[in-house]
Design a protein that fits this description.
single chain, about 80 residues, mainly alpha, 4 helices
């Protein structure tokens, strides 16, 4: 379930980047690939580069914090499993 929602979010990011990139003189295929693999991090960087800095920084910071929390959660789960 979580994988499906993550995939849907990445696809929505890709669609937005591919449609919006040519409007700002950017390569649509490049931003589409980056959006698919990096998701919201690529969206944040794109928004910063296209002068929508506040929204871009907010998305980028929230995404990075989310990934850091996910890594910490995984490390705690691994430590818990091996301590049994």
């Amino acid at each position: 379930m979580e994988f499906a929602s993550s995939l849907v979010i990445n696809i929505l990011v890709v669609v937005f980047l591919v449609i919006d990139a040519p409007k700002h003189g950017k390569r649509a295929w490049l931003w589409g690939v980056l959006g698919f693999f990096l998701g919201t991090i690529a969206l944040g960087i794109y928004l910063i580069q296209t002068d929508r800095k506040v929204l871009g920084w907010v998305i980028l910071i929230v995404s990075v914090i989310g990934y850091i929390l996910l890594i910490i959660f995984i490390l705690i789960a691994i430590a818990f499993i091996f301590s049994l």
